[in-house]
Amino acid sequence: MRMGRPREFDAETALDQAMEVFWRHGYEGATIAQLTEAMGINPPSLYACFGNKEGLLKAALDRYTKLRNIWMDEVVAAPTARAVAERMLMGIADKQTDPANPPGCLLVQGGVACGTGSENVPFELAARRAQNEEQLRDRFVRAKAEGDLKESADPAALARYVSAVSVGMGVMASSGADREALRQVADVAVQAVEAQSTKR
Amino acid sequence: MRMGRPREFDAETALDQAMEVFWRHGYEGATIAQLTEAMGINPPSLYACFGNKEGLLKAALDRYTKLRNIWMDEVVAAPTARAVAERMLMGIADKQTDPANPPGCLLVQGGVACGTGSENVPFELAARRAQNEEQLRDRFVRAKAEGDLKESADPAALARYVSAVSVGMGVMASSGADREALRQVADVAVQAVEAQSTKR
DNA sequence: CCAGATATGTAGTGTTCACTACAGATGTGG
DNA sequence: CCACATCTGTAGTGAACACTACATATCTGG
After folding, report:
1. ipTM score for this prediction
2. Nucleotides on strand C with an atom closer than 7 A to protein CB?
3. Domain B61-195 CATH class label
4. Where are the domains of chain A?
5. What is the 8-class DSSP label of residue B80?
6. What are the beta bridge partners of residue B149?
7. Which nucleotide lies closest to A50 by the C1' atom and the CA atom?
């Protein structure tokens, strides 16, 4: 098999730069010119490697969720439902205000509403948020089986709740809320999970 | 004073139509063509009346928040902090899944991240969300003064929390969550407020 | 009924967008 | 060293965008 000229840029490094542009400006707000400049490549290289703008977004989302899933594995490793919620939401407060990244969460900032022709994008983001929620739900199902959550507790509702709070915190972060403000939200939010927990 | 030819469309009716387009597609995703068609007018009428696209958005936001504030007044009229939170979040669950409107909340769907040249839009939305949060905070301050909330409770944090949950619910609604799913989230969320309340 | 003022519809304007044709560069297999 | 495959940079492409010039229509004040 003939190989041809090898690619001169690293795809993952380039994706990290593209991720940041989508994160800051959203899918529709990000232009190919901004993306190629951030990635340090020219348009033909982008299209050869990722197909089109939406393909680039998906690749960036894949990378984002891959990194995030590693962290989520640590989150659900916490010993109790309450500890899972706390670790998750406090971590979110830190991550979404980390100056190394744009504020907020790519899975929201990417675009919750898009124009004609990009209707797919919000679905794509929602699907990845749903993955997170499922992971939480599975963890809360286990927590209930372990007697960690009350008999009356609904693991799916709890997971949806924690997911909703984290999304809300992300929007707040993107509009200027600082780490401390988000941690206060997380602190209150955890108490709802605690209310569903068996006493310790 | 000379009056000239009178306007042939009703500005508020037209705004309602524009609001829906922004709500469904976001600021950047909404095109002037879609807006004018929905409003039943031609571009020159739009620009004469609202200045430009961003002016139209602001006018639509004004109308949106005006209607919403009427509802918020009812919310904060609830007798206790817990009742306020419940009335607010349960109402949000209903409103954000009302088939009469696009799903979710205009103050989020409008655009949490925008491209170069529209950086103002996310700020504009955030400012109006902040108004809501302030109203909640004032109510919770009163609740604490009335002995309805514990001495350890932080009214500002509680308000930020309720605001975050409602934003999170909005994003969920926009990605397909139904009324019942949102009411479950609201139900869990209220328990955190309850945990900050004095016993009854 | 006339003069001035404002609104409307048609038909554009220049700009920016996502995307690509093409030619030259750089690799591999024989 | 050659045939071929793939990548890269330059320089565009048509389409869609927000916005507007202009002629016409419809009002008010006098």
Report:
1. 0.95
2. 3-12, 16-22, 24-29
3. mainly alpha
4. 65-195
5. S
6. B197
7. C19
